[in-house]
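Appendix B. Chain record.
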Amino acid sequence: MNNLKLRSMVVSLVVATTLMVMACSGGRTASPERLATTGLRLYVFDCGTLKADLTRFRLKPEEVATTDLSVACFLVVHPRGKLLWDAGAVPDMDWTPTDGPVRHHLALPDGSERDLTLRKRLSAQLAEAGYAANRHRVSGILALPL
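Structure tokens predicted for this chain:
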């Protein structure tokens, strides 16, 4: 990926993040007292482990300790609503949990392929945190206001 494409992607992500935060905040800032009583919370969920392609980062195997990258999903709970930020690489409906880790092969639009190891569905992790997945829209997209 060339430098111009990377910069364009980063700028697009920053703009999208800024717009999403502004849309969720309603243009007002909550007082510290309100945040303390209602509780702003951030949940981080395990949405898998991705085997990285070192050539994408111009690294050699001897330069890294591991090629495993964490795939995290985030739930932001704010007094004005909830936001699921990054719902993972594989939607819950596309894999079946077992007693152990599940390997899922991803074929990307650019023709490259990756292996992702999944352990627990995002909906199950949301339920453990007290947020029933059947009450929220959960899919494999970047940001999803709940």
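Further analysis of this model is presented in Appendix C.
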